[in-house]
Write a structure and sequence with these properties.
With 293 residues, the protein is mainly α. Helix content is 70%, strand content 11%.
Length: 293
């Protein structure tokens, strides 16, 4: 599928880009003893892990349904998204403690123009990755790629802060370096928590959103033969939903006619991007019930 092929390309580019950035950030951070740059390097290491998890999760999610997984493997996206979010929060806590420790016991900070060059390169690379992955995430509604896109965007912002810290370092104002390290760590934790919640909701079978449900109901309303609808249920299947509901029709209608209506409804509703499978139960209404409809 084009969806999974595009996601694989995005994750591969993320791995290559982050490996390159990790190397130059570590070099710049070590020679200058910059806490902000070292934090940024650790963030790039976490990004590599995220991209690898994205690649693996996407590969599993792209598998077709089988006898053991009748509804496919779509939830793999959210399992691996949760792993990414947990790694981000763990890294964030570690960076936060390190940055606070640096404020209490500052080390030797040596400004280098390499810091500024590395920041500019990082912003340029991450901006390009963000534009590409954000386009893919929106086109295919892929949470894994969306998580990567947000990570690239956040790196642009955080490295901009790092750039500011480097400029202050030119004038030997080193406290800003540690403060930026703290901001970076808090930001990473916040984004990780958001991704965790989004993944958790799907894995806990959160209901379809109201907007998508209304799309389904609008289709049902076009069928005058359907007098009543209830027992609407939904279950996430990867980025889509399996839905089921009961329709009530005239009790005098033949079984063939009522099931033909259900079949046409299922086909039309399942054409929506949000819907993976539609299951409709048909019940008859007697004449007294029809008067109340």
């Amino acid at each position: 599928m084009e969806r999974y092929k595009s996601a694989n390309i995005a994750s591969f580019l993320g791995i290559v880009g982050n490996v390159f950035l990790l190397i130059i950030k570590l070099f710049a951070g070590v020679i200058s003893n910059s806490q902000a740059m070292i934090s940024d390097a650790v963030n790039s290491a976490a990004d590599i892990f995220s991209s690898v998890m994205t690649f693996i999760g996407n590969k599993i999610a792209s598998k077709k349904p089988d006898e053991d997984h009748n509804l496919g493997h779509g939830k793999a996206e959210y399992i691996f998204s949760m792993l990414i979010s947990l790694s981000m929060m763990i890294v964030a806590i570690s960076l936060l403690m390190s940055s606070i420790s640096t404020i209490r016991n500052p080390g030797e900070y040596e400004f280098s123009f390499v810091l500024i060059v590395v920041c500019l390169i990082t912003i340029f690379v991450k901006l390009g990755l963000y534009i590409y992955t954000d386009r893919i995430a929106k086109r295919y509604d892929n949470l894994l790629i969306e998580a990567n896109a947000k990570d690239h965007r956040n790196d642009c912002i955080l490295t901009s802060l790092n750039l500011i810290a480097s400029v202050f370092g030119m004038y030997n104002i080193v406290l800003v370096d540690s403060i930026v390290g703290i901001i970076v760590s808090l930001w990473i934790f916040f984004i990780g928590a958001k991704i965790f919640k989004a993944s958790y909701d799907v894995l806990m079978d959160v209901s379809i959103n109201e907007e998508s449900k209304q799309k389904v109901m609008e289709i049902i309303k076009k069928y005058d033969e359907v007098k009543k609808v209830n027992h609407f249920n939904s279950t996430p299947v990867g980025y889509q939903y399996q839905i089921s509901f009961t329709i009530f029709v005239d009790g005098d209608m033949s079984t063939h006619e009522s099931h033909d209506i259900a079949n046409r409804l299922e086909k039309e509703i399942s054409s929506l991007d949000e819907i993976y499978l539609t299951v409709i139960h048909v019940n008859p209404l007697d004449k007294d019930d029809l008067k109340d409809c």
